[in-house]
Design a protein that fits this description.
By secondary structure, the protein is mainly β. It has one domain. It is built from no helices and nine strands. The strands form two sheets. It has a seven-stranded antiparallel β-sheet with strand order 1-9-8-7-6-5-4, with no helix packed on it. The protein has a two-stranded antiparallel ribbon with strand order 2-3. A hairpin with a 2-residue loop joins strand 4 and strand 5. It is globular. It starts with 11 loop residues before the first strand and ends with a strand.
Length: 151
């Protein structure tokens, strides 16, 4: 089972309920709060486990459609003002991504980390173009926070 990374950057942060009310280049910032994680063990999320083969050819681990590394999220209305995220793999035996964030890329290595998931939540069209919607769940216990991402 090949793991395909997302090759295009996430282009905006927007809430699904507000998507029709804003233009394609507008950013919406609202707070979503849940006492418990919105996504559970059986929901599709990334990193996702895989296993294949048998005997000496057996392999297993976790793969993700979200490319590991540093990402700069920018506001289309203010491209100079961005926020940095670093996504890394937690390890072969656990299905979390490690997420660090900072206002400056140089601060990422010393910033606090959270266990995170990326969850595909649906598809829509904006201005006739197909858009994938993803939720980034940061944290996995009470107090999780979410970003809705459009790609």
């Amino acid at each position: 089972m090949p793991i395909m990374p997302l090759t295009a950057p996430f282009v905006s942060l927007a809430l699904l309920g507000s998507a029709a009310a804003v233009g394609t280049d507008e950013r919406v910032a609202d707070v979503i709060h849940a006492d418990l994680p919105l996504f559970g063990e059986n929901d599709a999320k990334h990193p996702a486990p895989f296993s294949e083969g048998e005997g000496e050819n057996y392999s297993c681990g976790y793969g993700s459609r979200v490319r590991w590394g540093d990402w700069k999220f920018t506001d289309p209305q203010d491209p100079e003002a961005g926020h940095w995220y670093r996504f890394t793999n937690y390890g072969v035996f656990h299905c979390y991504a490690i997420t660090r964030d900072a206002s400056d890329r140089d601060q990422l290595k010393d910033s606090r980390f959270e266990y995170s998931f990326f969850v595909p939540v649906g598809r829509t069209r904006v201005g006739g173009r197909p858009i994938e919607l993803w939720a980034m769940q940061i944290g996995s216990r009470p107090g999780s926070s979410y970003h809705l991402l459009a790609r």
